[in-house]
Every structure is written in structure tokens, then in C-alpha cells.
Design brief:
The protein is built from 8 helices and 46 strands. The protein is α+β, with helices and mostly antiparallel strands.
């Protein structure tokens, strides 16, 4: 059997052989692919640089190929610690401004070199962006660094990307989302590069662990258990390829780390705890396990722990104020790599481990690696791949003409604090304050912030709840709000609490299991909560009830019988509490209907209906303060950019407001009817980038470069 190095050499040779027969306009492309294979797979920087120079010469008028060749050549010089890298990056920026993505990468590298006071020398760590795509990149690199596995969210299939050619290939074929709601999630490629293990959400709507060949052959289930219904995530194959390290959560709300035999047999549980495990890794010799978690079930900060696989002894590996997470053993087995925000930004750190004990203090390897970071794994040469989410969310404020419904000024950020981390705005009843959620770190519950419109002063309310990302509801006194929070480590229940905005003290209002039938609303006097109550039989439909917040008494006021299965309806009450507005998906979830009924009870009158595709992702339906219009976010046109529309209660066609912004989401209308606060996440859909850390201390790459020097 040929080795990976031999096979990659054959690939390069074949590409170069094709060069003679290739048309002149294709020669640069062939040379570029051959150079990338030589650099990323063979690790032959000198040979790759020669081919990049030839590709640059052949590119001619093809500016994209020329910029790519020049950028890759600069990256090779940077790996060698050669000052020529800076000159080439500057040339990309100077001469290829029309190639936006490539010039941006060059600027990033120039900035990094400037921060470092020069170049990353051969003994230093380098950082390189490999790929950019939509959807969270829950996968791993192949051992040779040629392929990367990921869930293709266009269909939900498992797929692999050729990192040399840039081609994606689906390994499963479930059909469209309309054909099936099954989907793949996280995956990991085996140490020999022949198999892939992946999580699959099946037709019965719980997760199972599957394995198949890298060519898509012989798919099979290796673990299936209904009690593990929340999630299962494969992290790593054992060195002998016989077991897979996973984390899962059971119906008992327990987080577990376990080894699952590929050939079948009993599962070996290594660790059980009362909260979810986000990342775990086995040492190369299989003796020790590292994982991240909260020391207390109600804690916000994460620490890293080490467990002896055979003896079960457990010690803290990294414990200090801050967010330390995502530990992965480095290939030499002497260090653990992890993510920490202890400097204020996320960076990769490493700590030495000797015989199951930490030695020394953690060392920073690379800072500023992204807001949301997910480790994907090491290659055989010691290159470390990780994915970073580039999406941000912020709260903006604009103004519209109440009479014409037209935007009067461009949106502006509502706050300068924690830029890119704010969402779900809600104006106070008197309009003097704006409440919103702020998320300081990924994977943590949002925090409630109240900002004064007059002074701009922002104050965090000390709410000790696992808040759900739903807009809060102000009560008329302006001193308290109703907020939704998750309950239990599995987050399978939702509870409404009345929260005092001065003290953060919360009081129970109502609790119900997830998924919720829909979003409720409160009357203007703060005494009645209108909400949905699902009937015992499907034919009974969905009841709308009025609940007295003081006595707890409930009465049904209307019923919906044509709600589409799996749909998410929402309610809103008019400013005078006379009418209820209802937004619901109908006719097989193909349409969104807007209806009106008396809040005291009666039948629904339909105002309008839109194609469901235009209203996906938006369930809000607030009223204008004069009670004459409802507001809804629609996505019309080929670009699908969200727009704010108003629907006249008296009837007639919906009207544009002029407010349109990519990524626009949850919004709130000021009591004056003019100002609108809204969240905007950019980009939308979320973009994710795949990066690689190279030349890490102790890796095969760093030793090879040091030897060459």
C-alpha cells in the first residue's frame, strides 16, 4: 500500500503532467493546485514556492489567480521567517484591491506581523485562514490535512471538503429538507484517514452515532439509545481505531464522556456530571482524559480538568478566573492546548503535563483568534485546525415617520459597550430606557442591560437566571419585567419570571415544557397574560387563553384549528387591550397568516397572508402605538434582505417602512411611534472560517523548519 506522501506526490505529478495539454488560460490554475498540494500535503515549501512563482507568471490578466499565487507565496516566505513576506503582502494590498477576500487576508497578516514587531520566525506559530463558509464547521481535518469533514446545512448531509481543490462532496444523500428532517452534526475522521464517525439525528428525532468509509461506503449505526436524546458528539478515535470518544447528554439531564466500541459492545462511561461537556480529549497513550466544565452546576466560568482513565483520579488542570475551555492533547502527549479569554480576547494557550499533573503555568501561543472558537483537531504533521464564527449581533436605533411609515434617518448603534454582543431590544413603557441582552462570551447565558436614553448610561441588572433569547416584557410600572429562562441542565423547560429591575430578584410566574407552542403577550395594564394552551388532541387545535397574573385563573378566549404541524405562532395585544393579533403558519407551513380577534373572545378575522419563505426567522407582530397597524419583518426580492413592513388593521395592502438591513431580527417600537430599536446580526446567514495554526512548538512542522534553518 502506498503511503500518503507517495500518493500526494503522484497527485502533484499528475497535475504537472496535465500542464502541457492544458489551454494557456488554464495553466495557472493547474500550477496553483499543484503548488497547494505540495505545500499543504507534502510540506515541501521550497517546491511549492517555485510552482507559485510559475503560476503567478502564467496568470497573466487573470487577477484572481495572480493574487492567489502571490498570497500563497507570501505565506510560504512567512513560514520561513523571510522578510520578503511583508513585501509580497503589501503588493497584494497595493495591486489587487478588486480581490476583496484576498486583500483582506493580506491585511490581516500584515497587521499580525506589525503586532509581533516583525515576522513570525521559524520557531514561532503562524496562523492561516483555510476556508470560509456558512454554518458551524463541526468536523475535523484528515490526518494528512487534505480533507475536512462538515455538515452541509443546505441539505443536512455529511460532507467533506478537499482543502486543495476547494471542492465539496456529500457522503450521505438524505434528500432535501422537505424530503427528510434528519441531519448530520459533528464528525471526526479516523487516525488512518479511512473512516469517519458522525452524529446523526434520525427520523425518531434523537441522536445516534454512525460510522462510514471516507468514500461514503458501508454506513452503519454503532450506538443508538433513546435515552441519549439531547445530543451526542464524537471527539476522537482511539489510537488503535477501535473506540470513539464521545460526549452525550441523557434523558436524566446527565452529561457523560464515554468510549463507544466501533465493532459493538458495552459502552464505557468515563465521567458523569450534572452539566454538559463541551470538549474532551484523550492523551495519545490513552492514559489520561482532559475535559472542560463548570466547577459548579450554576457557575458561569469554565475550567479544565484531567482524569486518569484507569484509576479515576481527577485533578484540576487549569483553574483561574476567566473562561478556559476546549482542551485538546497535543500530538506529543506532553501538553494540552486550550482556549482562554484571560487576556480579554480569545487565544490559544498550552500547559505542560507530566504523569497526569500540570507542570508550570500556561503559556500563550496565539492571541486574538476569534470571538467564538471551536477546535477541530490536529493533523499528522502537528498543524492544528479550528473554526471561528465571524457573526456579530448589535442593537441599532432608527426613526420612522408615523404617518407615512418611512425611515427618516440611518440606523445607529444604541450603545458603544460590548460592540457585537447585544441583541433583543425592548423599550420601557415611558420610552426613557432601552433594555437589551448582552453576551460577554460564547456559550453563556445573556445578561440583562438597561440603558438610559437621556444619559446613555448602561447598567447591568444582576439577574441570576439562564435567560432565553426572547425579548422581555415590561410591566406598566416600569420597575419590573417578565423574562423567560431555561430550567434544568437539559434546558427542557421554560419558566417565566417577574424580575425586579433594581435588585434582580425574580419571582415565579409560570412554567411549561419545551418546545413552547408559541410566544405570549401581556395586556397594557399588566394584569392579563395572553398565551397558548395546546389541546389534548390534534383536532382540538391550539387554544388561546387569558391568565390573570394575580390570581392565576385562566379562561379560553379563542381557538386555532389550522396551525401547521411544527409551526411557531405568536400573539400581540393592541395598545388599548381590545384586540389580539395572531401570526401563525398554515397550509403545510407554506403560508404565514395574520389574523385579528377581540381580546374578550370571538372568531379570528384574517387580515393578510404571506408566503412562509418571506417571513422565516421572524415571529414578532407588534402594534404601532396608535393601534392602527401591525409590524412584521419580510424578506422579499432576490437578495432576501429583511425589510420592516406595516399591515393596516382597517384592511388594505401591506406597506414598506423603508427600514431594510441585512441580518435584521428582533425589534421594538418606541412609545412615540417614531423610534425603532432592532437587533442586527452580520453576516446573515452566519459565516464561519476554518483556520490552521502551524509551526506549533514540538510539532513535526516546527522541527522540520528548525532543521532546515
Amino acid at each position: 500500500m502506498k503511503t500518503t506522501s507517495t500518493l500526494s506526490g503522484i497527485v502533484v505529478a499528475v497535475l504537472l503532467a496535465c500542464l502541457q495539454a492544458a489551454p494557456d488560460d488554464k495553466k495557472a490554475d493547474v500550477l496553483l493546485q499543484a503548488a497547494m498540494a505540495k505545500e499543504t500535503v507534502q510540506g515541501d515549501l521550497k517546491g511549492a514556492m517555485d510552482l507559485y512563482r510559475k503560476a503567478l507568471k502564467e496568470a497573466g490578466a487573470n487577477r484572481q489567480l495572480a493574487a492567489k499565487a502571490l498570497l500563497h507565496l507570501a505565506q510560504c516566505y512567512e513560514k520561513q521567517g523571510d522578510a520578503e513576506a511583508r513585501k509580497l503582502y503589501e503588493r497584494v494590498v497595493r495591486e489587487f484591491g478588486d480581490q476583496k477576500d484576498l486583500t483582506e487576508t493580506a491585511r490581516v497578516r500584515l497587521a499580525a506581523l506589525e503586532r509581533a514587531g516583525g515576522l513570525s520566525y521559524p520557531s514561532g506559530v503562524t496562523l492561516r485562514k483555510v476556508w470560509e463558509g456558512s454554518g458551524w464547521l463541526e468536523g475535523s481535518p484528515s490526518p494528512d490535512g487534505r480533507y475536512f469533514s462538515f455538515p452541509d446545512w443546505e441539505t443536512g448531509d455529511l460532507a467533506v471538503r478537499d482543502l486543495v481543490t476547494g471542492q465539496n462532496r456529500r457522503l450521505t444523500d438524505k434528500g432535501t429538507w422537505k424530503d427528510s428532517d434528519e441531519y448530520a452534526e459533528s464528525s471526526v475522521i479516523s487516525g488512518d484517514g479511512r473512516q469517519i464517525a458522525y452524529a446523526w439525528r434520525n427520523k425518531e428525532r434523537y441522536f445516534e452515532l454512525r460510522v462510514m468509509g471516507m468514500d461514503g461506503s458501508n454506513p452503519r449505526v454503532v450506538f443508538r439509545q433513546k435515552e441519549v436524546d439531547f445530543y451526542i458528539e464524537p471527539f476522537q478515535w482511539t489510537a488503535d481505531g477501535k473506540q470513539i470518544l464521545v460526549a452525550c447528554e441523557s434523558i436524566k439531564n446527565e452529561g457523560q464522556i464515554a468510549l463507544i466500541p466501533v465493532a459493538g459492545g458495552p459502552v464505557r462511561v468515563l465521567k458523569t456530571q450534572a452539566h454538559r461537556v463541551w470538549r474532551s480529549s484523550l492523551s495519545p497513550d490513552g492514559r489520561f482524559l482532559v475535559y472542560d466544565g463548570h466547577e459548579r452546576a450554576d457557575g458561569r466560568e469554565k475550567d479544565i480538568f484531567l482524569l486518569s482513565v484507569e484509576g479515576g483520579q481527577e485533578v484540576p488542570l487549569v483553574r483561574q478566573p476567566g473562561h478556559d475551555n476546549a482542551p485538546v492533547w497535543m500530538p506529543d502527549g506532553k501538553r494540552v492546548l486550550f482556549v482562554s479569554n484571560r487576556t480579554g480576547t480569545h487565544g490559544f494557550w498550552a500547559i505542560d503535563v507530566v504523569e497526569g499533573r500540570p507542570r508550570g503555568i500556561p503559556q500563550l501561543l496565539k492571541d486574538g483568534v476569534g470571538r467564538t472558537v471551536r477546535p477541530n483537531g490536529f493533523t499528522r504533521q502537528g498543524a492544528f485546525y479550528y473554526s471561528a464564527n465571524t457573526s456579530i449581533a448589535d442593537v441599532y436605533v432608527t426613526e420612522v415617520d408615523p404617518a407615512e411609515g418611512k425611515m427618516l434617518r440611518e440606523p445607529a448603534p444604541a450603545t458603544a459597550q460590548l460592540v457585537g454582543a447585544n441583541s433583543a431590544p425592548s423599550w420601557s413603557p415611558d420610552g426613557s430606557r432601552l433594555a437589551y441582552y448582552s453576551r460577554r462570551r460564547p456559550n453563556e447565558a445573556p445578561r440583562l442591560v438597561i440603558v438610559s436614553v437621556e444619559t446613555g448610561e448602561a447598567r447591568e441588572v444582576p439577574v441570576k437566571l439562564d435567560l432565553m433569547h426572547l425579548p422581555l416584557i415590561w410591566l406598566p410600572d416600569g420597575k419590573s419585567v417578565i423574562m423567560a429562562a431555561y430550567e434544568g441542565s437539559k434546558r427542557d423547560r421554560l419558566t417565566d419570571y417577574r424580575v425586579d429591575l433594581q435588585t434582580g430578584v425574580h419571582h415565579f410566574v409560570r412554567s411549561f415544557p419545551l418546545p413552547v407552542p408559541g410566544a405570549g403577550t401581556i395586556s397594557s395594564d399588566g394584569k392579563t397574560h395572553f398565551e397558548f394552551l395546546k389541546g389534548g388532541e390534534p383536532k382540538l387545535g391550539l387554544g388561546v387563553i387569558a391568565c390573570d397574573l394575580e390570581t392565576g385563573q385562566e379562561r379560553e378566549i379563542a381557538r386555532v384549528t389550522d396551525l401547521a404541524e411544527g409551526g411557531f405562532p405568536s400573539l400581540s395585544v393592541s395598545p388599548d387591550s381590545k384586540y389580539l393579533a395572531l401570526r401563525l403558519p398554515v397550509e403545510g407551513n407554506q403560508w404565514t397568516a395574520i389574523r385579528l380577534a377581540l381580546a374578550t373572545g370571538g372568531t379570528w378575522r384574517e387580515l393578510y397572508r404571506f408566503p412562509k419563505s418571506e417571513t422565516d426567522g421572524s415571529w414578532q407582530l407588534p402594534w404601532t402605538p396608535d393601534g392602527r397597524n401591525l409590524l412584521i419583518v419580510r424578506r422579499t426580492g432576490k437578495d432576501g434582505i429583511p425589510e420592516l413592513w406595516r399591515i393596516p388593521i382597517a384592511g388594505g395592502e401591506p406597506q414598506r417602512t423603508g427600514l431594510s438591513m441585512e441580518g435584521m431580527g428582533l425589534f421594538s417600537l418606541h412609545p412615540d411611534g417614531r423610534r425603532i430599536a432592532f437587533e442586527c446580526g452580520r453576516p446573515n446567514p452566519p459565516q464561519n472560517e476554518l483556520w490552521v495554526l502551524e509551526n506549533l512548538p514540538g510539532s513535526a512542522e516546527s522541527k522540520a523548519v528548525a532543521g532546515a534553518k
